[in-house]
Design a protein that fits this description.
about 325 residues, alpha+beta, seven-stranded antiparallel sheet, five-stranded antiparallel sheet, 6 helices, about 20% strand
Length: about 325
């Protein structure tokens, strides 16, 4: 009984004292366990690869989808640009008519009929031509200033003391001495840009201007108006001199030029004879009225920039400005 295996009841091996059947079963069991573990590990690795692949494939798909979307957007933008470009080209082609097409249309109209078109057909063709040329043409200087010139003429004779021009009162003290033949208008580009200014003044002149206008953003702008103690003269380089007088011991000569925005005249320099300022600052006293000490130069229009100069320096500058006055070729208002 001692030679039998306690587990299975088989005879034990005499040399080893072990059960060959149990050893074989045990070895088979271990192999099965190892195989199961290996299979499990292989399945786990395969599952990990599958998960990784699925994740990477999803990211790639998202990237590809985003890329395709961007490509589609860029293509749409290009199509939009092309379409807008084509629209612009169509608009341009409808706005501008080439000389050859004009000639051909004229020749075809001559050949088609020798009869004059009716008034209705004239209106229709006129509307078409306006649409083809992109609307009305830009106004000229003459068209902008027409209302102003007509206002001066309509208020003649100028004996009321005031001339109303587009809601602004212009002193009429100069004008009352002249007739429509003696007061004129002129279009002068004083600053060399593309805008002509309107000048009103005496036909016989030495550069004197009674009123000056310009226009900007389709609106006429008053640049200056003159009076007896406040005269203006045009200089050959486009500047304007304002000669003013307040009393026997106060006179000014102010130099202006056109502002870059074309909305007004800009002050540049002043020469002045000012006895009151000279006395207040101690250059002269009331008992000693030496006018040679009353001259000043300034780059401002207030007293802050006044610098004392000699009468000789002042006269030299004034004479220089007077030598640059230009004769303005006014056309009499009676001829408008």
């Amino acid at each position: 009984m001692n030679n039998l295996c306690k587990k299975c009841g088989n005879v034990l091996d005499e040399q080893t004292g072990r059960c060959s059947k149990c050893e074989k079963d045990e070895k088979t069991f271990k192999i099965a366990v190892v195989a199961c573990i290996a299979s499990f590990l292989i399945a786990l690795v395969a599952l990990s690869f599958a998960i990784y692949y699925l994740n990477s494939d999803g990211s790639s798909a998202a990237i590809l989808k985003s890329h395709h979307k961007n490509v589609e957007i860029e293509a749409q933008d290009e199509n939009d640009d092309d379409s807008s470009h084509n629209i612009v080209k169509k608009k341009k082609s409808s706005q501008y008519v080439s000389s050859s097409s004009k000639k051909s249309s004229k020749s075809s109209s001559k050949k088609s009929s020798s009869k004059k078109p009716s008034s209705s057909s004239k209106k229709t063709s006129s509307k078409k031509s306006t649409a083809q040329t992109g609307g009305s043409k830009p106004k000229t200087a003459e068209e902008y200033y027409d209302e102003i010139i007509r206002a001066y003429i309509a208020q003649y004779p100028w004996d009321s003391g005031i001339i109303n021009i587009r809601g602004e009162n212009v002193p009429a003290e100069f004008f009352s001495e002249y007739s429509l033949d003696e007061i004129g208008y002129a279009y002068v580009n004083i600053d060399g840009n593309y805008v002509d200014e309107l000048l009103i003044g005496p036909v016989n002149n030495d550069g004197e201007v009674f009123a000056m206008y310009t226009y900007n953003l389709d609106q006429p702008i008053t640049l200056l108006t003159s009076s007896y103690r406040n005269r203006h003269y045009l200089l050959d380089e486009g500047g304007v001199i304002n000669e003013g007088s307040g009393s026997a011991v106060v006179s000014i000569w102010d130099y202006y030029y056109m502002a870059p925005d074309m909305c007004g005249l800009m002050f540049n320099e002043r020469i002045t004879l000012d006895g009151f300022y000279a006395e207040d600052e101690g250059y002269v006293d009331s008992a000693n009225g030496d006018m040679s000490k009353m001259w000043f130069r300034s780059e401002t229009q207030d007293y802050s920039g006044y610098e004392s100069i000699s009468e000789e320096e002042a006269r030299e500058k004034i004479d220089e400005w007077e030598s640059k006055r230009v004769n303005i070729n006014y056309t009499p208002l009676s001829e408008y």
